[in-house]
Amino acid sequence: MTRAIVIRQYLPYPPEVVWEALTDSDKLGAWFMPGNFKPVPGLEFTFRKPPQKGWDGITWCRVLEVKPLQFVSYTYSGKASAEKTLACADIHSNLADAAGKGIFTELDTILSFSLEKQGDGTLFTLKHSGFTGFKLVVVSLVMGKGWKKLIREKLPRVLKEISEHAR
User: Fold this and answer.
1) How confident is the model at residue 136 (pLDDT cuts 50, 70, 90)?
2) Cα–Cα distance measured from residue 139 to residue 56, given in angstroms and rounded to the nearest whole number
3) What separation in angstroms does the CA of 156 have from each of 27, 96, 117, 138?
4) Cβ of 15: how many Cβ atoms within 10 Å?
5) Residues in contact with 110: Cβ distance below 8 Å, sequence separation at least 6, in sequence order
6) With contact defined as beta carbons under 8 Å apart, do 54 and 87 qualify?
7) With contact defined as beta carbons under 8 Å apart, do 72 and 40 qualify?
8) Domains along the chain with CATH numbers
9) The whole model's pTM is what?
10) Sign of the Cα pseudo-torsion (68, 18, 131, 81, in order)
11) What's the Cα-to-Cα distance from 144 to each of 15, 113, 125, rounded to whole Å?
12) Could you please report the per-residue DSSP string of the chain?
C-alpha cells in the first residue's frame, strides 16, 4: 500500500516568482517552514519549528534534483506522533485525538515541486511521495489537507509580496 500526495494549482505569477518562493530560504519559510534550504544538489538541510506535542520540530532533508525555474526535489524525513499530524491539518477533536493516541510514524519521503509556464502564470505541481504502509497512507491523507491549505492560502500571499517588490 503506497500513496503520493499530488496537488496541481494554477498560479497567476510567472515561473520566476514562483521559483523564488520555492528556493529562497526566507520566502520558503514564510509560507511553509523556516529552514536553511539552498537549491544545491546533495545539500543536507533542515526545516525547524518550535517543538510541539508529538514532534521535535525538525524535518531532515537532502536536495536531490534542481532544474532552475522548472523542478526541485528533496528528501523529507522526520519522526512524529499522530497528534502532530492532526494538528498540522487543523483537526482538533476528542475523537481524532483518541484515534491517534500512541500512533508514531517515521517519514522517509520525497517532496518535489514542478513549474510549467502557462500563459502569464505557472502550473504548479506539488508531489509528496513515499507514503508506504497503512499508517503512512493515513498520515498522507491528513498531510494532503495541510498542503492544500498552504498552497491555497499562504503561498499566494508570499507570491504577491515577491511580485510587488519586483516592480
Assistant:
1) confident
2) 17
3) 12, 30, 17, 27
4) 20
5) 64, 73, 74, 75, 76, 127, 128, 129, 130
6) yes
7) no
8) 2-162 (3.30.530.20)
9) 0.86
10) positive
11) 23, 14, 13
12) -EEEEEEEEEESS-HHHHHHHHHSHHHHHHHS--B---S-TT-EEEEE---BTTB-SEEEEEEEEEETTTEEEEEEEEEEEHHHHHHHTT---HHHHHHHTT-EEEEEEEEEEEEEEETTEEEEEEEEEEEESHHHHHHHHHHHHHHHHIIIIIHHHHHHHHHHHH-
Nearest CA among 72, 57, 81 for reference residue 142: 81
Residue 159 grid coordinates: 507570491
Count the residues in the chain.
Answer: 167
* pLDDT tens, position by position, 78-105: 886 655 555 555 565 666 555 555 555 7
Q: Which three cell numbers stand for residue 144?
A: 494532503
